[in-house]
Give the backbone structure.
Amino acid sequence: ILAAANPAYGRYNIKRSIEDNVQLPAALLSRFDLLWLLADKSDREMDLRLAKHITYVHQHNINPPQQHTPMDMKLMRRYIALCQSKNPVIPAELSNFIVGSYCELRKEARLEENKYSTTFTSARTLLAILRLSTALARLRIVDQVEKEDVNEAMRLMEMSKDSLKQQQAPTNRGKKDVDVIYDLIRSIAEGSKTLKIQDIRDRATSKGFKPDQVEKCLDDYEELSVWQLNQARTKLTFIS
């Protein structure tokens, strides 16, 4: 189900919860796997494009010429039908990873920096991860869910939550990406002296960071002698 709602007061108020803004009960909103805030922010380039489009349609009663060739709808329908025919399964070896990822989400939800969050991490969140991972596997027309599907599902959920936070929690404002990733790595370690690099990459990717940002953080803090990476770049060891 894809649904859209306009703010009850004509404009989204970031100081209010999403329930107050759209006047829908939390019990209903929790049924949706992803909640995304599409705010109408002032942007000169986007405003100019929209104004030109509306003006052209008003004058000519047709859409303006497109800059690309649209995909054939018959091909699109065949692709969608093929995706729907697939029913990917989650392999046993992925179960522990999914359970561990969910527990981490629950842990982060309890942190002080997330006290402004307008969403709640519950068992429905775990079901959402499973549904999104399966849907992503269907898009690839495969019979089995892979770890990358789970990571992408968690990234989508993280970006969804971030869109709702807006400017409510200024915790990381002004911080560079490498510093935010460093804080994430420290939280993953929980006092442990060593970490697997792949675990760091997986968690950072699920938070929306790009691989090159993660590598830059690893290199920058290694130069500062905060940690050491082995030659194969598979293990991180804290020095201090």
Remarks:
- Residues 147-165 form the longest helix (19 residues).
- Residues 167-173 have pLDDT under 50 and may be disordered.
- The longest strand covers residues 235-238.
- The beta strands are 194-196, 227-229, 235-238.
